[in-house]
Amino acid sequence: MSKARIKIKFFAVTAIEVGAKEKILTVSKDLNEALKEIEKIINWPLKSNLEKNRICLMLNGRAVKMPIEKRALVDGDVMALIPIMGGG
Amino acid sequence: MLKFKKDKCVGCSICEIICSMEHEGCVNTKKARLRYRDNWPQIGRVDFCRNCAAKPCVKACKEQALSMDSEKNLQFNIDLCTGCLDCSEVCPFGTLPTDGKYPLFCDSCNGMYQCVNWCPTKALVR
Amino acid sequence: MNDKLPGYAGKILTIDLTEGSFNIEDLPQELVENYLGAKGFGAKILHDELPKNCDPLSPENMLIFATGPLTGTLTPASGRSVIVTKSPLTGIWLDSNCGGSFGPEMKAAGFDIIKIKGKAENPVVVLINNSEITIEAAEDLWGIDTLTTHELLKKKHGEDYKVACIGEAGEKQVLMAGVIAEGRAYGRGGAGAVFGSKNLKAVVVKGNNGINIDNYQEFMIANREAKNEIAISPDTGGSRPKFGTNSIYSFIREAGVLPVKNFQGGTYSGAEEVDEHELVKELYEQDRSCFGCPIACSKYSKVKKGKYVDKYVEGPEYENVWAFGAHCGNSDMGAVVYAEYLCDYYGIDSISAGNAIGFIMECYEKGLVSKEQLGFECSFGNDDAIINLVHLMGKREGFGETLGEGVRRAAKVLGHDSESFAMHVKGLELPAYDPRASFGMGLAYATSDRGGCHLSAFPVKAEVLSNNHRMDPLSTEFKAELVKNEQDWFTIVDSLGICLFAIFALGPNQITDLLYSLTGQKIFSSTEELMKIGERVNNLTRLFNLSEGITSKDDTLPARLLKERLSEGPGKGQIVPLEEMLQDYYLVRGWTKDGKPTSKKLNQLGLSDNV
């Protein structure tokens, strides 16, 4: 199977723009491919926000290196899109 | 004409800061032509001369420091002002800012409305 | 107006409460060029003038209010000022920072610095109206809460006065008492107790002096750029205005950095339901700003239903949502609102208070303190216990007497190895980040000049919230440089008199543009020179701490963080490898292996006369 069933979480202002705090999606196993698919599904400029350093991409609690590394997703992976923030 | 939208105000005083800079060349909110008055813990309001139609201040001023121009906008000549504050007494809104001695009338920055330009939440609009 | 020093008020006010006298002097140029303002001014004065090893609650201790050159100006987030003193809670350096509008008003009255020494015979209020200084009897205010004190003083003297005052906690010299000023707080470290020890109820100030601008055109250009940067940033122009300080809540939790139940980890009933969206929906009613701030991160919140209906607060802030929430195993945000309100009411540091409550909950569950001793049950998740304990600490009654002295002292009283889970560094209670999932934060806690502080450096941003792969939260690499550089940079921000949140959008070049165009001081046109000032101030606070008895042994973390491994989350299995980061840090700082600035370093910073 070339697909993985993953959960994506959205936070703060990203959640408002996307319209959800989390989604469960079946996407391509290849991380880069998956991100393209996700961008279409949520109708939100994922790629450009990543490139402009306006969000951080986390996978299972760890930040994903930029440029996006070659990586295979598996069922149950949890992705998170976090607006780059300072502290509280 | 300057308008205040209370539901958008966050009480930052940036309007007072920029107003004083524009008119005095330094930062001194006590000389701003508008004044934020807080209502902690809730947001209060911003007071300023509203250039109202009635303008009872013009008649009240014994020194004739207040007048109207051809477009019925309020004109204030500080050189004639003695600081009696009768204008403030008769103001129908009762909220005219003063610097302690002299009244402070909004002049819209000659149509530039700096406070409107700088208000971060569009609580002040034309 | 002061023609000589654009950006500054130009004067220092010194008040002697013992003599009932005051004097006003000019702000010296050397102080400005070498120490910049606010925290920097405080460091130089405290180091030079405070008698060594004095009792922080004696008349010998000083209170130093100070603003920075950017305080009260068009610069974004320019409402800030500091109180510098020797902390009665930690026994070492304290700079306590406050937003709101007190700092700008103090500067409008004509003072960059207000020094208060001695002790009044009876409760007094210091009233400042430009250069008219009065020390007024205030017995009628003693015992009154901070909110009512504000109302009464403004009613008596005029609504245009700004107030900084203590409540019952400060009056009774509760060691974690703070000073409340116009809805904000000089919260941490016990400055309120120092007020109380001097019989000082409040400082009340108003003024109408202007702040001169050296190069108006350049200052406007710099401000337009700053305004734009703040507005387009996803932080200061996006999440922070909407969610306030809670904008980071759920992803800090996601990253495993949110400490639960006194840093034990695990979960609790209702934990998943708390996040920044829920707070907006259930609590927030209005946005509020400090003076000069376009971000408007503060909120007016009111509880709409449930047990705490109609309770309100300016807040709740992220640190309190944690301290009275996850840290205590509590998911009732109404209780959080009320607890934070009570901390304002009594005038007590909410981070220390909340941290102490979580500590005593663990002690209760371990049987180290009983229901009889406390007067009520006190397991994790018991919101009544939280409220009861804030009252008791605020009033210095019952068990609050012990707990209000801080977890370090409370652990000594309770014994049974409770010291290993008393979560403080150098006596200051830890805030809302678990460094076992963010190693750099562990180094930051261990080396902050005022103790367990999250505002001296904030590696969580670089490690957890950044795309930069070099900053792995579970690696020690590069952390020493990161912490040193952030400490120096944040110290500059604390010396400028602006809010840290401004620099989540503005960089050093934008700051120097603002500062140089405002002040015209050549030395401030160079970011290198500015960083040197930050480094100088941090070395001076280190010298102060060393002379007050701090050694490298105190640059440490609670045993729990060094020995107990996190049980779940991205930091699962981790403890903080502090020692290697610490040695790197001393090296990077130019200090000896024992954490002392070398003479070479002190020479470089022009501090060799200060040893």
Describe what you observe in this structure:
The complex is a heterotrimer of chains A (88), B (126) and C (611). With 88 residues, chain A is α+β, with helices and mostly antiparallel strands. Chain A has a single domain (3-83), classed as Roll (Ubiquitin-like (UB roll)). Chain A has three helices and five strands. The termini of chain A are far apart. Chain B is of the alpha+beta class and 126 residues long. Chain B has one domain. Chain B has helices at 14-24, 56-60, 86-90, 114-118; strands spanning 3-4, 34-39, 42-48, 66-68, 74-76, 124-125. In chain B, the strands form three sheets. A two-stranded antiparallel sheet of chain B has the order 1-6. In chain B, a hairpin with a 5-residue loop joins strand 4 and strand 5. The radius of gyration of chain B is 14 Å and the shape is globular. The mean pLDDT of chain B is 95. With 611 residues, chain C is of the alpha+beta class. Chain C folds into three domains: 11-206, Aldehyde ferredoxin oxidoreductase, N-terminal domain (Aldehyde Ferredoxin Oxidoreductase,  A, domain 1); 240-429, Orthogonal Bundle (Aldehyde Ferredoxin Oxidoreductase Protein, subunit A, domain 2), CATH 1.10.569.10; 435-610, Aldehyde Ferredoxin Oxidoreductase Protein, subunit A, domain 3, CATH 1.10.599.10. Chain C has 25 helices and 17 strands. The radius of gyration of chain C is 22 Å and the shape is globular. The model of chain C has no long low-confidence stretch (mean pLDDT 96).
